[in-house]
Amino acid sequence: MKYFKGFAFTALWLMVLSFWSCETKVEDLADSRVVQSFNKDWRFVQDDPEGAEGARFSDSDWRMLDVPHDWSIEGEFNRDNPTARGGGYLPAGIGWYRKSFTLPKSAEGRKVWINFDGLMANSDVYINGHHLGHRPYGYVDITYELTEHLQFGKENVMAVRLDNSKQPASRWYTGAGIYRNVKLIVKEDTYVDNNGVFVTTPQVSEESAVVNVKTDVVNTGVASEVMVKSLVKNADGQLVLADSVSRQLEQNEKYTFDQSLQVESPRLWSLDSPEMYVNETEVWVNGEKKDHLSTPFGIRSFHFDAATGFHLNGENIRLKGVCLHHDGGAVGAAVPLAIWEERFKQLKEIGINAIRTAHNPFATEFLDLCDQMGFFVMNETFDTWRASKNNADHGYQHHFDDWWEEDTRAIVLRDRNHPSIFIISVGNEIRDNLNNEQGFETYKMQHNLIHRLDGTRPVTLALFRPNQAHVYQNGFAELMDVVGQNYRENELAQASIDNPDWKVMGTENGHTRQAFLVWRDNPSIAGHFLWTGIDYLGEADWPEVSHDYGLFDRAGFTKPRTWERMSWWSETPMVRIYRREHHLGQGGLVDDWTPTDFDTYDEAHLEIYTNADEVEVFHNGESLGTKKRPEDASPIRFRLTFQPGSIEAVARTNGEEVAVHELKTAKGPSQIVLSPTKTSLVNNWDDVSIVRVKLVDEEGILSPNLAKKLTFEVTGNGELVAVDNGARDSHESFVTNERRTARGQAIAIVRATADEGSFQVNVTGEGLTPASVEITIGQ
Ligand code: GAL
Q: DSSP assignment, residue 104?
């Protein structure tokens, strides 16, 4: 696959690794800018002890752990947990984290910041007992300057209180804790401001591109001539451009340097070839390098057209999107990047090219991965403005007035260099009245702020029942750069016909064939975003703890709609057989030839998904005939008398065989088969392998109907991170070494714990031949 480019992945893992490898040496401050991971060796307590912010407070009996950490996912599912259906019935409450650290005496005079990429939620952060700030929203990155409050050459204590006690606070699972990365940033007295580099590409063609770099420099030293150098390198590390600009900066002056550079024959960022560049910024004063940092970016152009939808680098591309929530299933809200990497591969394979971050900003590294793997991203800010929504009584509506501006600013400034981001949504199904002056104003203030901070992204809103809310009639839709609407696909198509100058897009859509046909038959609709790509935790009614919304389940297993969607959205030839589970077309769809009710099961009803012209079906080698793929995108259907053995679908296009799928009747399971997503890992929190487990008979055929308890054991230099089977009504813990199979399958997520060697994942189950797989540890 083209997106799986050696460079992109090596670069990403090198970034992750270099970030990780300088972990604990806070004394190594020789460089003019030092960015150190602050993830290791925190103390944690799930309690609210008095005085825990104080430097002298004793935390020696608190649990020692590394972040990212989500303590909610470690808890038990309980119907009485106050997070309720939104939070997947997992626990919430108050928790504290503390970390001691020292900076050398020689660092006195340096400027020091702490950056949390996300704190869930209602955080209060303290340094040496001094309150740095409070922040309600759990999804934004937070940076505090520490300089004044630090003791150089002595111990300092960072304390973080996170209050998730007011529940329900969300319509989906949020997690709880320091669930994203933390960094310590040390600079000199003249420096680039945090999020102070903004790279845009105002003119792009195959022949050349203009790269504009805006650099916010702060001079806290004496008045001096300050020089900013911008060095642009391509993905091979070759310098393609160098430019410098100088200016006198007074003491305490902040100034934005502006450079426009021309790149010849640029390698354009696209979905199939997501070429990245890096802008290396250097700040020089009197021959001394005062600061430096790297800003990855991509060279690409895009625009929306009212008649033809979305265009990237001049090419018309239909958006085939999914909405995602931020949890990673069994790992909760603290998601190792390799889990997203695997999920993205799966989504890409079935044709998905766009992601909506429902309904909040995601981790920085998630966006890096979208850049690297070639996805478009709709970056969304909020699920509510002032009006509340069901099942989230203590949600963001209580904070919107005080915080929307600072939160929006944080989101836009952190994320504006990602080439993957093509639009910003300022809300999901906002229930505020949009048919009065306040509704207009509330939209406009967000729209205008985003345009001021980032003039390159259109702004939208995921509208809720716009015809009922009158926003298609009252002038509101005209405020939006792109009219985004959730569901009611026909209404959006009609709105686009009635208003031929509107640029329109489905911001959230159902999986149904009716919705797909609207997408297929209306090129003016730039795209759809399915609810959702992957099952997420929460928004389900007990005994379920997650809902069946995804194309894939929580554990990454497929569903009928996975393949149906692939048949609609992918050009990779495919065919997939499903059958109705019970006799005479009763029951759900299953992809096995092993009915549970052998005695009564007689007439089998098949549904076959394909993107080929036609399919011929063979039952135990005998042809049942050939059928053409229907024009209306419905599945190809066959009915037959069931016999154990084999059912095979052969798909042909222009008479040529392009894909085959066969199901066989399984005998009882006798073996466990393991297939890890990676057989080599680096010793890094973000790198994990997902070991997929299947129960098969002696011929290797999946035995779908057994829920067998499996036991997982890791020996050697590795650890078991979590287990799952994707079952929505399972209340088994994720953080244990046992799991039942669901439809004969389960997963174990494993990680290395040393820099070299290997480890084994061993899986046993009663009456089954045990299985083992070796994972090696590389560099
Ligand atoms: C939508 C909403 C999503 C999710 C979905 C469930 O209306 O925007 O967040 O709740 O319904 O069907």
A: -
